[in-house]
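User: Design a sequence. Structure:
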């Protein structure tokens, strides 16, 4: 079946982009937490 390689390649591409998106979201969350903590610390001082 000539369709199979294309399908598996497409699935791998989608999985790769999904992992990239989750990685980017994780970094965004970390940055937001750092900003929030620094704002709270600045507000306390």
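Assistant: Done.
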């Amino acid at each position: 079946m000539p369709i199979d390689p294309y399908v598996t390649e497409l699935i791998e591409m989608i999985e790769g982009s999904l992992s990239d998106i989750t990685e980017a979201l994780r970094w965004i969350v970390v940055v937001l937490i750092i900003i929030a903590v620094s704002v709270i610390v600045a507000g306390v001082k």
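Residues 20-45 form one domain. The radius of gyration is 20 Å.
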